[in-house]
From TrEMBL:
It is a multi-pass membrane protein. This is Protein p34. Gene3D superfamilies: Cation efflux protein transmembrane domain, Cation efflux protein, cytoplasmic domain. PANTHER family: MITOCHONDRIAL METAL TRANSPORTER 1-RELATED. InterPro entries: Cation_efflux, Cation_efflux_CTD, Cation_efflux_CTD_sf, Cation_efflux_TM, Cation_efflux_TMD_sf, CDF_Transporter.
Length: 295
C-alpha cells in the first residue's frame, strides 16, 4: 500500500472521529455555531472518502484508453470537495437563518466547547500532516483535503470565541451570527479549492519558479546541443509533463543526440520526480531567435 493511500485512509478515519466529537459537543450545548462546525465535519468525511477513491484510481497504471495515466482523478476529487464545501455552507446558512428568529438556549457551554476543542486539536494536527505530505507527494487530493481542514480549524476557533461571547453577554443572536461567519469562511475556502483544481484540469503550466528550474537544468545539462525551444509544461495530479525541441549540430549521430536527451531527462527527473518528458530533436537550421541557450 502506497504512502498516499495510507494517508488518505487515515484522513477518513480522523474525519469520522472528529465528526463524532463535534456532534457530541453540539448535543451537549444546542449551539447553532457548534452545529455548523459539525456540519462542516460531515463534509470532511465525505470529501475524505472521495479523496481516498480518487487516490486509489489515480495510482492505476496507464492503459490503452488512458495512455497518459489516471493522474487527473485527484483533481476531480478536489473539485468535488470544493462543491461539497459550498453545499455545507448553504446548509449552515439555512440553520443560522432559522436560529435568528427562534434563538436557542445554550446549555453546558464550557463542557461542550472543551469537547469541541479536542476535535479542533485533532484537525489541526492532521491538517499539518495532509498539507506537508500532499506537497511532498505532489497529491492535489491530499492538499485540497488539508486546506479544507485548515479552514475548519479556523472556523472552530471562531465558533469557540462566538459561543463564549454569546454566553457571557446573554445576546442569543451572536450564536447564529457566528454560524453565518463560519459559512462565509468555508464558502471562500470552497472557491479557492475549486479554482486551483480547475486550473489543473485546464492544463495550466507549471509554476514560474519550477519553470525556471527546468530551463536551468536544460541549459546546464544539454551540452552538445545548441538550443532548446518551444518548452511546454503541464501538471496532471501528481504527474508533470514536460516537452520541448532540442536543436543539435547536423553532424551529430542519432546515438549522440540520444545520449544528450538521456542526460537531460535524468537531470529533470531529479527536479520533477515521476515526470513524463518528451524531447523532439532537430537539426541546427531549426533554431529559433528565442529559446534556451545551452551553456
Amino acid at each position: 500500500m502506497s504512502r498516499i493511500t495510507k494517508i488518505a485512509i487515515g484522513s477518513l478515519l480522523v474525519g469520522i472521529v472528529v465528526l463524532a466529537i463535534k456532534l457530541l459537543a453540539w448535543r451537549m450545548t444546542g449551539s447553532v455555531a457548534l452545529l455548523s462546525d459539525a456540519l462542516e465535519s460531515i463534509v470532511n468525511v465525505a470529501t475524505a472518502a472521495a479523496a481516498l477513491a480518487a487516490v486509489l484510481y489515480a495510482r492505476r497504471p496507464a492503459d490503452a484508453n488512458h495512455p497518459y495515466g489516471h493522474h487527473k482523478a485527484e483533481l476531480f476529487s478536489a473539485v468535488l470537495e470544493g462543491v461539497m464545501i459550498v453545499v455545507a455552507a448553504l446548509v449552515i446558512l439555512h440553520e443560522a437563518w432559522g436560529a435568528f428568529f427562534q434563538p436557542r438556549q445554550i446549555t453546558a457551554p464550557l463542557a461542550g466547547l472543551l469537547v469541541n476543542g479536542v476535535a479542533s486539536v485533532l484537525n489541526g494536527i492532521w491538517c499539518w500532516v495532509l498539507i506537508t505530505q500532499g506537497r511532498s507527494l505532489r497529491s492535489p487530493a491530499l492538499l485540497a483535503d488539508g486546506r479544507h481542514l485548515r479552514t475548519d480549524v479556523v472556523s472552530s476557533v471562531g465558533v469557540v470565541f462566538g459561543v463564549l461571547v454569546a454566553v457571557a453577554t446573554g445576546v442569543a443572536w451572536l450564536d447564529p451570527l457566528m454560524a453565518v461567519l463560519v459559512a462565509l469562511n468555508i464558502l471562500w475556502a470552497g472557491w479557492v479549492v475549486m479554482r486551483q483544481s480547475v486550473g489543473g484540469l485546464m492544463d495550466e503550466s507549471l509554476p514560474e519558479e519550477t519553470l525556471q528550474e527546468v530551463r536551468t537544468v536544460i541549459a546546464q545539462e544539454a551540452t552538445g546541443a545548441y538550443q532548446a525551444h518551444d518548452l511546454r509544461t503541464r501538471s496532471a495530479g501528481s504527474a508533470s509533463f514536460v516537452e520541448f525541441h532540442l536543436v543539435v549540430p547536423g553532424e551529430v549521430s542519432v546515438n549522440q543526440a540520444h545520449e544528450v536527451c538521456d542526460r537531460v531527462e535524468a537531470a529533470l527527473e531529479k527536479v520533477l520526480p515521476g515526470s513524463v518528458i518528451t524531447i523532439h530533436v532537430e537539426p541546427e537550421d531549426k533554431a529559433k531567435r528565442t529559446g534556451i541557450t545551452v551553456r
